[in-house]
Design brief:
ten-stranded mixed sheet; 2 domains; Rossmann fold; two-stranded antiparallel ribbon; disordered N terminus; alpha/beta
């Protein structure tokens, strides 16, 4: 274990701040690093405001950061003794530091509801900044018991539903998310639930009678068939591109008539992990996440793996 900043690439990064959520993130990150055959970087970002800019306070913050990263690194190595762990302490805003780190890592792992620079991750500006600006995969977990990392491979899982990866498929742009879901399942010997959600606009009361008409029934059937084909084609393409890795992964395919946000949140109830492609949008306030991603980050019953596709 080292305490100097080490410029690493192709590894797993975990953001830490000493909070329970960060501890859970360390456990997930340690597992991910071992399963990927990669090293782990334990990263803490710190900065002071103008009125705090004195030497003694800076030393206090740095010493605090050193203790936080050391404790987190020791936790990771207790969980995965075979793991190579480095620690990094970077002065700067948490959002920018984490987004930058994600550019050189194959995965970034963050906990929510932290303290300091990582406070209120899922609901606050830092978490949204990392998710919206980051260019690499981002795994977000909470401190809740339900979000606890599974035991190391070979130990009994504490919950009966901790062996499924749910992946949302909107269209062909979700291919990278499906590939990631299959890879996660293959590494952990889990199964995959691939789901596409579709729905019509709300039918006004005066037009309710049309829902029982033949044209309406035909439209429903066509939408269902289209959804099923989207799922089948995307899964088949992902399997074909990674035959050796995912050939024995069980995949349950589904197309559901319902609002995408609700269908995907419901699909996380029996999942150990949910994967979704993130389509960032550009507004007058800069880049931001779409409604489905936001809904999952706020309401998912499982950790969320975001796969940027644009």
């Amino acid at each position: 274990m080292t305490e100097e900043v080490v410029i690493m690439r192709g590894h797993v990064v975990v953001g830490v701040d000493g909070s329970p959520a960060a501890d859970n993130a360390v456990d997930w990150a340690a597992d991910e690093a071992v399963l990927r055959g990669a090293a782990l970087e334990v990263l803490h970002a710190w900065e002071w405001t103008a009125y705090e800019a004195s030497d003694w306070y800076g030393h206090h913050l740095y010493n605090d950061a050193t203790e936080i990263t050391q404790v987190a690194a020791e936790r990771a190595m207790r969980r995965r003794p075979e793991l190579t762990v480095h620690t990094s302490i970077v002065h700067g805003s948490a959002g920018q530091v984490l987004a930058d780190a994600g550019e050189r890592a194959q995965l970034t792992v963050l906990g929510s509801r932290g303290r300091g620079g990582f406070a209120d991750l899922l609901l606050g500006s830092v978490g949204h900044e990392v998710a919206a600006r980051g260019t690499g995969p981002l795994l977000v977990v909470r401190a809740d018991k339900a979000f606890a990392a599974p035991p190391p491979h070979g130990e009994e899982s504490p919950t009966p539903n901790a062996t499924r990866v749910t992946v949302g498929i909107a269209d062909e742009t979700s291919l990278l998310a499906v590939e990631a879901a299959l890879a996660e399942a293959a590494r952990r010997r889990w199964s995959v639930y691939a789901v596409h959600a579709w729905s019509f606009p709300d039918v006004p009361a005066f037009g309710a009678a049309t829902t029982g008409s033949a044209p309406y029934a035909d439209a429903v059937r066509e939408c269902q068939q289209y959804g099923e084909s989207i799922v089948a084609n995307t899964v088949a393409t992902a399997r074909d591109q990674h035959k050796e890795l995912v050939h024995d992964v069980e995949v349950v395919q589904d197309a559901v008539n319902g609002r995408r946000t609700q269908v995907l949140v419901d699909g996380t109830r029996a999942a150990a992990l949910v994967v979704i492609a993130t389509h960032r949008r550009h507004g007058h306030l800069g880049r931001h996440l779409g409604p489905v991603t936001n809904a999952l980050l706020h309401h998912s019953h499982a950790p969320v793996l975001l796969i940027p596709v644009d």
